[in-house]
Amino acid sequence: MNHHDQTAVDEAAAMHIGLIRDKTWYGQHWIRDNKRAAIYSRDGYACAYCGITSESAERQGIRMTLDHVHPRELGGTHNVGNLVTACLVCNCAKQSKGLRAFLKYLRGIGIQTAGIAKRVRRQKAKSIFVTSAKGQITKVTPTAEGEIRKRVS
Predict the structure, then answer these.
(1) Mind listing the pLDDT tens digit of every residue in the chain (153 residues)?
(2) Secondary structure class of 63 (helix, strand, coil)
(3) Angle formed by the axes of helices 116-124 and 99-108, to 10°?
(4) Are the C-beta atoms of 130 and 140 separated by less than 8 Å?
(5) Which residues make Cβ contacts (< 8 Å) with residue 124, sequence separation at least 6?
(6) Residue 44 within any structural domain of the chain
(7) Closest by CA position to 40, among listed 1, 72, 2, 6
């Protein structure tokens, strides 16, 4: 399977499991569906913080979202290296906290945080493949300065 096929599969899978509904924005117009789907796929369709899968979340009526690891309010960007999949419960609990402050908050309410920071760092460091409306595929790789985009087809 080539990158184009994989990206189409990722977006279709995200729509199928309810992460992207009917190609509408639902107030989340800051990111396109194809990029959102690629991030969900990169993260294994699971919350970076608690690990709940999209299937389990859907059964419990919990929506999956994208979270800015370094919050926009604190200068974070929409770059793929700053975005991870998060269930709505974790995203709402995190609010505008940075990762370190969020982990401290979780420990304070008795939640084990071992491995969360490592998982988040690992996920946000991975590249994604995004397909444009014209079918062009771009590899987006996070860097310390932002991201590098390279067309692959």
Answers:
(1) 444 444 444 554 555 445 544 444 344 678 989 999 999 999 999 999 999 999 999 999 999 999 999 999 999 999 999 999 999 999 999 999 999 999 999 999 999 999 999 999 999 999 999 998 899 999 999 999 999 999 998
(2) coil
(3) 150
(4) yes
(5) 48, 69, 80, 81, 82, 83, 84, 142
(6) yes
(7) 6
Q: What domain count does the chain have?
A: 1
Domain span at 30: 3-126
Instruction: State which H helix or E strand residue 123 sits in.
Output: helix 116-124
**121 burial type by CB count under 10 A (0-12 exposed, 13-18 middle, 19+ buried):** middle
142 assigned to some structural domain: no
